[in-house]
Design goal:
The chain is mainly beta. It has one domain: Methanol Dehydrogenase, Chain A. It is built from 4 helices and 37 strands. The longest helix has 24 residues, at 10-33. The structure holds calcium ion.
């Protein structure tokens, strides 16, 4: 084979053998130390061991259930802080679900800054700033400078940037491997949701529903960043060719000129991929403007706004759709988490998709066909009298239309459930929903509405003395009359939980099993475990634990972060179970898109935010008539000292990691020294 080389002597062979064996061994060791890669099989089995947390909802089913039980109902009271990490200067809530893989914790904070930490110590491995042009992008962000998470694939961290970019970073170094453009903020799009992976593609949708956008989601090749396909959720100009048969079908459900205002139906939160069914499920937001009358759409369904869609990962071809609220007029984005489970219903195992919708109904669908199975209210509902069990269509209360009158509707735009993750425990068969138990809002159409290109176009007024934020920003010419109220269905708020509750819901019988005060609104969320636990982060900064079966309270810690809270995750390192979460806002600049006031009721569900002069109570925050407290993590609390803190004190956002018998001190407030990041005119 090597004619020019002399054969090695016996002596040389004897000497070299151990050397080459050593080289070989070190090569093997090096291979062993190579970071494990996340591939399709890893994602399909994600969450099964509970060791890592590699995808947004912990597993393909997006249940946020962990099989770990080292921390359990008998010892969770010993939970204490292991370490903390300052995630940055803030500027908004911490809505991200961190990911854990290969001993590294990855997460994303305000302005889409991504970081990687040694999960054993919290020591920073790398940090990457996409350098968003904050001044330019801020007015296009409806509901807070937030990102909800990342995706992992092969050796890459896939990071969405709020300004519409998608970045693949080397997981080991944080260096950019590729960059793709999903959408442009100049066209009123932003990105806040976490991407997911399906068959080597990154799936991502766009935010911007209260702006004149045409909603869509798209797939990008995870290896190259090239766009594979794009699916618009609403039809465009009907004089031009339809992009696909789904658009042809949707077109007659709109007024011919509705596309000129974008249409809406953005994709800003829920997404799951069932590798067995080989279907991607996504939820779409509301149509714009809010009242169907202003879309010239009376009696029309407006496909595919406020819908759940199932598409093929290779092509983006629509397989089925289910519209929760045809012709929605109440900002009932249908983007909430979609949890997949196999449930025994009427003696049959059904492969279901479940969603606790903003609109107050808990939906159970057949995820293979889209067939409606059941829907019952998990909170007080007045907009509908129920969902027709045969057709799956809502029986809309005719008095819920507000073409002429001001009508107080439950739930309001913040929704009975928003983005805060719920969790499903297969052992108890229960879903744990962070619920706004008394969400409601006084809807009044803006009779003077004029379409505003590039601005927010909600088309409603926020009460007498307040400019029509969806319109030109002027006060309505005629004060709206007092709001009508309507009869309700569903469980009403109970004493002590008007500020929100954790509801344990049986999705088979569609009945509440137990509820505990705290939760709902915007922020926080839950994880449930084989240790018979539900661990909940409450928007006011508390970390609590309940027994999953009975709801016995086992732990309550005020983390000291006091707002802007994200959901908890759990994982195992060196045989020890940890719980991590992010929270804190830092200074939140007030922003004023279009000069018409912050959009408090948009895709981030800021309908819970009090609006000065609005006679509607802050949904789920305070009884009617009382001065409501601003919800955490919104512009409404800009630079205010959190409850229990002295004036001018605040806590900068942190990532906290808890473990049994952890002894590290919890965060304490400090005086603010840094100016609000978004006001930094230097960028
Ligand atoms: Ca919305």
């Amino acid at each position: 084979m090597f004619p020019n080389r002399k054969p090695l002597s016996c002596a040389s062979r004897t000497l070299l053998f151990p050397l080459s064996l050593g080289l070989l061994l070190s090569a093997w060791l090096a291979i062993g130390q190579q970071p494990k890669r996340v591939d399709d099989a890893t994602l399909k089995n994600a969450g099964k061991s509970g060791e890592d947390w590699i995808t947004y909802g912990s597993n393909a089913q997006e249940t946020r259930y962990s099989p770990l039980n080292e921390i359990n109902a008998s010892n969770v009271s010993r939970l204490g802080l292991a370490w903390s990490y300052d995630v940055g200067a803030g500027g908004g809530g911490q809505e991200a679900t961190p990911l854990v893989w290969n001993g590294t914790l990855f997460s994303i904070t305000n302005w889409s800054v991504v970081f990687a930490l040694d999960v054993r110590t919290g020591k920073e491995r790398w940090r990457w700033d996409p350098e968003v042009n904050r001044t330019a992008v801020q007015p296009k962000i409806c509901c807070g400078v937030v990102n909800r998470g990342l995706a992992l694939y092969q050796n890459l961290v896939i990071a969405p940037v709020i300004d519409g970019r998608l970045e693949a970073l080397d997981a080991a170094t944080g260096k950019v491997v590729w960059e793709a453009r999903v959408a442009y903020p100049q066209e009123d799009y932003t990105i806040t949701m976490a991407p997911r992976i399906a068959k080597g593609k990154v799936i991502i949708g766009v935010s911007g529903g209260e702006y004149p956008v045409r909603g869509f989601f798209a797939a990008f090749d995870a290896a190259t960043g090239h766009q594979a396909w794009k699916f618009y959720t609403v039809p465009g100009d009907p004089t031009k060719p339809f992009e696909n048969s789904a658009m042809r079908k949707a077109s007659p459900t709109w007024a011919p000129d509705a596309w000129k205002m974008g249409g809406g139906a953005p994709v800003w939160d829920g997404l799951s991929y069932d590798p067995d069914a080989d279907l991607i499920y996504i939820g779409t937001g509301n149509a714009g403007p809010w009242p169907e009358k202003l879309r010239h759409s009376n009696g029309k369904d407006n496909l595919y706004a406020a819908s759940i869609l199932a598409v093929q990962p290779e092509t983006g071809e629509l397989r089925w759709h289910y519209q929760t609220v045809p012709g929605d007029s109440w900002d009932f984005d249908t983007v909430q988490q979609m949890t997949l489970a196999d449930l025994n219903i009427n003696g049959r195992t059904r492969k279901v998709l479940m969603q606790a919708n903003k609109d107050g109904f808990y939906y159970v669908l057949d995820r293979l066909t889209g067939q409606f199975i059941s829907a019952e209210p998990f909170a007080e509902v007045t907009w509908a009298k129920g969902i027709d069990p045969k057709t799956g269509r809502p029986m809309v209360n005719p008095d819920a239309m507000y073409d002429k009158d001001t009508v107080r509707i439950s739930p309001g735009p913040g929704g009975a459930h928003n983005w805060s993750p719920m969790s499903y425990n297969p052992n108890t068969g229960l879903v744990y929903i962070p619920t706004s138990t008394s969400s409601n809002f006084s809807y009044a159409i803006d009779q003077d509405f004029t379409y505003k290109p590039g601005g927010q176009n909600m088309g409603i007024v926020f009460g007498f003395g307040r400019g029509g934020r969806g319109g030109a920003g002027a006060a309505p010419a005629t004060p709206p009359p007092p709001a009508k109220t309507l009869p309700s269905i569903g469980p009403k708020a109970q004493e002590g939980d008007r500020g929100g509750a954790l509801i344990a819901w049986d999705p088979v019988t569609q009945k509440e099993r137990w509820r505990r005060p705290g939760g709902g609104s915007i922020g926080g969320g839950t994880v449930t475990t084989a240790g018979n636990l539900v661990i909940q982060v409450i928007p006011d900064g508390r970390l609590v634990a309940y027994s999953a079966d009975k709801g016995e309270k086992l732990l309550e810690i005020q983390t000291g972060l006091r707002g802007g809270m994200g959901p908890p995750i759990t994982y195992l390192v060196d045989g020890k179970q940890y719980i991590s979460l992010m929270g804190g806002t830092g200074p939140v600049p007030r922003f004023n898109p279009g000069g018409a006031g912050g959009n408090d009721a948009g895709r981030g569900g800021r309908g819970n935010a009090p609006v000065p002069g609005n006679n509607a109570p802050a949904v789920g925050n305070a009884p009617a008539g009382a001065a409501p407290a601003p919800p955490p993590g919104t512009g409404a609390e800009a630079n205010a000292a959190p409850p229990g803190f002295g004036a001018g004190q605040q806590v900068l956002p942190k990532l906290l990691t808890f473990v049994l018998d952890g002894k590290a001190p919890l965060p304490t407030p400090t005086a603010p020294a840094t100016p609000p990041a978004a006001n930094d005119a230097a960028r």
